[in-house]
Amino acid sequence: MRNSKIKGVIIFLALSLIAIPWFVSLKFHAAPILDNSISGFSAEKAYEHVKHLVQKIGPRPAGSKSELKAAQYIAYVLKQNGWNVKDQPFSKVVVRETSVLQKEQQVELISSQNIIAELPGTSPDTIIIGAHYDSATVNAPGAVDNASGVGVLLELARVLSQVSHKETYQFVFFGAEEYGLVGSQYFTSQADLSAVRWMLNLDMVGSPLEIDVAGKRSAPPELIKQVTALAANSHISFHVSRDFILMTRDSSQGGSSDYSPFLDKGIPALGLGIYGRPEGYFHRPEDRLDRVSLEDIQQLGDFAHRLIKTVTVESLGPAEWDELYLPFQMGKHVFIMPSSGIRVCTVLIFLLSILMLIRFYRNSSLQKLHWKQVVGVLVIIGAALFLSVIVLLISSAGELAWSWFKQTELLYYAHPLLFVIARLGIALGVFIILASWLHKLPLVRDPKLYWVIGVIWLLGISLVLALIRIDLAFPFMFWLLCLNLQFFLPSIILALIGPYFLIWMHFELFNSQQWISYYQTIHHYFPIFLGIYCVLLIPFVLGLLHAGITKAQHLKMWLKLARKPALAVVLLLLLSLGLVPAYSMDYPQIIVVQEEWSGTTDGKVHVFSEEDLPEKIITDLSGEPGKSIYVPILNEKPPMNVKASMVETIKNEKRNLIISIILNYSREPYLTRVRLESDKPFTVHTDEYLPMAKLPRKLQLVGVQNPSGKYSIILQRTPPQKNSIQLAVETQGVVSCSVEGMFSDSNPRIQIQYPLSSVDYQVWYRDFFKF
């Protein structure tokens, strides 16, 4: 009788888990009232704005004169259409902390301006629409990123100015977005947002459409439901940045564009962009006008216009909303599970798992646990861990071996999907080979014991994550539910479905801007990631063993037959990885052609890449095979020169240095940089080069110890530049100081035209001093 009651409770909990997500998602189902009027938006007119920014102005990095020209052009167009326009200049100090890929702390002064335009309506209720107009580097024309968004916004300004409207529209063109959302952060810190209903951001016009809802905070479910419903009704293929919600919450990076600072201030906001892994033109010289599609501009312009006219948000100004929800997209339908639903599901799955463990304990011999069974449990965990390590190491072996053989760090750059498929194929083949021999090992033959250990393992992981943040636990709770169902229906399919959401999170990461840095981090910290993935693979292996041993008679024959084909597939995949080209037309090799000057010596042109240079380039430049070639520049003066002097005083056994640096240059550099290094800790003070009052939270400039053991800090700034720099340094050691200036190179001495290369042309000046 007791067992039947427990079984009834388990069935009830399982049915509840199926019903609750569907029920709670209805709470947020809100379809907008469609506005079917013709917008009058002209893609051709929007394209003309894009063309002007790209071809007549060119690259527009933050603080540059070309960025200022773009700002003046935007203001002119808006005024012509009857908008009230003002500019918002700013200078902000940004601190780049040390990380895996950035070894030294960097402090930057970034100067730019926002362009703010307003079109008053009959009501003060305000809708903000934004787009950044700066480009990533001195060499990136920024056609798609983000002249395309600016062009759409300027054409929307014309369309909206021709009809009466209730809401007040505010268009904000942000500067210095590429330096880390600097312009939008400054705007939100200064603006009165009490009358704002919601904010829409346009960044990179193209298809398929990304509806970006994830920053440090996430967009309100109410807003997501309306925007996605309108996209579905407009027959627009879209993708909601679902799993990035998990990845970006509480991160230092925050969101990927200028809607994120609005979310931080409690303003409903989201962004429209391009979904998927960025092509090789992203932030590169190849981001030219031919990348911009009139069809995409028209589609996004019409859609944005309908959003502005249709979407309604009840509250005004900063608000609170449920942030730990999870959206699920099925085609054009989006369902949202609020945090309350996640908590209910978590509690129910916990209860279900505990009840099933109790039921198993009462019906098993574990009540009188023998030492042999304890050893058996340890052997099971050890075997699962061993299998996980072997599978991961062998699946990585091909990539690592070919990287070494080809001397290519980013072997997967052009065709990462092939490497992911190969890794999965190799891992599956290795697992099949090992599993075919498992029946000969002295393992415990009780399949339910594998199930118990797997459930306890996942329970522990889920509990820890649930205590940290409830939404982080959801992928593991789903996995735990599948493992619970596997108790009644032992099936390889359920074991494979369990980690579905973890796999999908990796797929989302793979189709993002962060995928390269993610892979580089894995390569830098391979042992750590090996440990993490082994921990995640253990319950997966246990689930497979539970299902496999339960149906051992059926599987033994199939595994034995599959052993040789699996070995052949593994070897074939390992060998075929060497045939995959490292670069393609869409993802070319990045090559830098850099004029380098130092002091008063003759300069040189340095041609280099992170990988070996193509043979044709080496032949054309008469160089040696490798990653770099130097070509001398004779009898020419450098673009700038630097003089430095120092006054020293000793106080309390510390050296107090007043360092004066004079910079003379024929043309203003885009970037100036001062790098200080010492064997001893030091502090820096400078009100000229980096205004100390603008440091976040009165942060002190101090040398940070780097992996080499030395203390260093990098100070840099964008235009306007100064001709003199004064630094006050307090230290006990000798200070090395390098002064650098970076110029754009509009007329390079060496031009490279190689079909599988993307070339950056730069001019750098460096000088070194010791104090």
Present the secondary structure layout.
Blueprint (H helix, E strand, L loop, with lengths): L1 H25 L16 H15 L7 H16 L3 E13 L9 E14 L6 E7 L10 H18 L7 E7 L7 H9 L5 E7 L6 E4 L8 H13 L4 E3 L3 H5 L11 H5 L4 E6 L19 H17 L15 E5 L2 E5 L1 H24 L8 H36 L9 H20 L11 H22 L5 H15 L3 H6 L2 H11 L4 H10 L1 H25 L1 H25 L12 E10 L5 E5 L6 H6 L7 E5 L7 E12 L2 E12 L5 E8 L3 E4 L15 E2 L1 E2 L5 E7 L6 E8 L3 E10 L12 E14 L1
Question: How would you characterize this protein structure?
Answer:
This protein has 771 residues and is of the alpha+beta class. It folds into three domains: 43-98 and 110-337, Aminopeptidase (3-Layer(aba) Sandwich), CATH 3.40.630; 364-579, no CATH class; 640-770, Immunoglobulin-like, CATH 2.60.40. It is built from 20 helices and 23 strands. The strands form three sheets. The chain has a 16-stranded mixed β-sheet that branches. It has a five-stranded antiparallel β-sheet with strand order 14-15-21-17-18, with no helix packed on it. The protein has a two-stranded antiparallel sheet with strand order 9-10. A hairpin with a 5-residue loop joins strand 11 and strand 12 (604-608). The longest helix has 36 residues, at 371-406. It is globular, with a radius of gyration of 30 Å. 42% of the residues are buried. The model is unreliable at 22-37 (pLDDT under 50).
